[in-house]
Inverse folding.
C-alpha cells in the first residue's frame, strides 16, 4: 500500500509520501514514490505515485527520458520545457495512458491489477502553484479553493484531520503539522504504509523547493509531532464528558 | 454502507449501529441493523448486520421464525433456547450459510454482491458475556482478551480511537464514550453512514439490556460527545508543536 498527500495552499505546496511497497503481506520493500524536477527560479514540479509499481516506474521513466531528450536538443516536450502546469499534467496523464495501454490487459489476465494514481504539484514562472490528481486513464482533476488537498493510496485514516484543518488559507507551519499528523495516523493504522517519508515543500512564488528531505524513523521533527499528537489525543478523549444513560 | 461496533468488556457488552442503507448513492434508506432477543434474567442477545440487506434480513427472519416455532412448542433449536452463546453463533452462522447458498450465485450473475457480516453479542445464565464476528460462509471468530471489539461495515474511520482506548478493563462510561466518538468520526467522514443510531448495553451478569435505545439526530447525549470531541480535537491539534524545517 501507499499513502501520499499533497496540499495546495496559498502559501505554496506541501507533498508528503511514505516509501513502503508490498506484493502480498510477505513481500515488503522500500521504494521512493516522490519524484521532483526543478529549474530553480523557473519551475519546480513534484510527482507522487500509488498503485502498480511497474506502471508508475514506467511513467516516471518516460517522463525522465523526455526531459533528457529535450536537454540533448531534441524537439520533445517535457516537464522541464512545457508551457504550463496544466500541460505538465497532460504529459503525465499521457505517460500513464501509454503504460496502461501497453500492460493493462496482460496484467489483468494474470489476475494482477494495473491501477495507479498520481499527484502532481508544481509551479512555473508566470503561473500559480497547482496541484493535480491524475487517474489511470490519464485524465485528471485540479485542487481548487473548495478542495485544497489530494490523497492517494490508503486515504481514510489520514483524511479526518485534513478535513478539519486544511483550507487554502492554512499557514505553512500548521499545514506541515497537519500533513505529519495525517501521515502518523495512517502509519499507526495500516502496516503496509511505512517510514521513511519523503517531504517536499514549494513555497508560492519561489520556484524552487525549500525542503526536499527524506525523514527516517528517528527524524526528530516527525517524532515530536507523533508523540505530542498521541498525548494530545488521549487528553482530548479524557476531556469529553462521560455518557450517562 | 454501514457502521456497527461491538465492545466486549469485563463490565459487559456495548453494541452500537447506524441505520443508513444505500443501493447506489442515489437510493438511500433507513433500516435498523440491530436486533435483540431477550428473556430477562435468563439470556439476552444482540445481532448487528452489514452487507447485502436482502441476505441479512433473510438471516434475521430465519432466526425469528425458529424462535416462534420453539415458542409454539415445536422441537426447534432457537436463539432463545440453545444451550450456549457459542451454539447461538452457530445458529446465526447456519442461517447465513443457508441464505448465501440460496442467493449468492444468482446475485453474482447480476453483478450484485452477496457479501454480509454480522456481530453477535450476548450472555446466558451460567455463561459469560461473549461477542462473535460471523462471516458470510457462516464461520465466526470470538473476541478475546487481546481483541475486545469487532467492527463491521465502514470500519476505518472509527478504529483509531478504539485501538487507543478499548481494552477488556475499560469501564462502561468510558467505553460508551469511545463507541460514540468512533461512530461520530465515521458519520463525519462517510456520508453513507447515517443517524439515527441504535444502542444496546448489556451489563455483565444482569441478563437483560440496561439500555436499548434509538438515538435521533438531536439526541442530547450524542450531541454532547460529538461537539466536545470536535472542540477537543481542535485543541489537541493546536497543542502539537509546529514544525520548523
Amino acid at each position: 500500500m501507499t499513502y501520499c498527500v499533497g496540499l495546495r495552499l496559498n502559501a505554496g505546496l506541501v507533498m508528503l509520501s511514505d516509501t513502503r511497497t508490498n506484493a502480498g503481506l510477505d513481500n515488503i520493500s522500500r521504494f521512493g514514490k516522490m519524484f521532483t524536477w526543478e529549474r530553480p527560479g523557473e519551475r519546480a514540479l513534484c510527482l507522487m505515485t500509488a498503485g502498480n509499481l511497474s506502471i508508475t516506474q514506467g511513467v516516471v521513466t518516460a517522463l525522465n527520458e523526455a526531459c533528457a531528450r529535450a536537454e540533448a536538443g531534441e524537439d520533445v516536450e517535457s516537464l522541464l520545457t512545457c508551457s504550463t502546469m496544466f500541460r505538465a499534467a497532460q504529459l503525465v496523464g499521457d505517460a500513464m495512458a501509454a503504460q496502461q495501454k501497453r500492460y493493462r490487459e496482460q496484467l489483468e489476465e494474470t489476475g494482477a491489477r494495473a491501477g495507479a494514481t498520481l499527484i502532481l504539484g508544481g509551479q512555473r514562472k508566470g503561473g500559480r502553484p497547482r496541484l493535480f490528481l491524475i487517474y489511470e486513464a490519464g485524465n485528471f482533476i485540479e485542487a481548487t479553493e473548495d478542495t485544497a488537498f489530494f490523497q492517494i493510496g490508503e486515504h481514510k485514516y489520514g483524511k479526518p484531520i485534513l478535513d478539519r484543518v486544511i483550507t487554502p488559507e492554512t499557514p505553512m507551519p500548521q499545514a506541515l503539522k497537519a500533513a505529519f499528523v495525517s501521515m502518523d495516523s495512517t502509519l499507526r493504522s495500516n502496516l503496509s504504509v511505512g517510514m521513511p517519508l519523503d517531504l517536499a515543500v514549494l513555497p508560492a512564488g519561489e520556484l524552487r523547493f525549500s525542503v526536499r528531505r527524506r525523514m527516517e524513523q528517528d527524524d526528530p521533527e516527525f517524532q515530536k509531532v507523533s508523540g505530542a499528537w498521541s498525548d494530545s489525543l488521549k487528553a482530548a478523549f479524557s476531556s469529553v464528558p462521560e455518557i450517562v444513560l
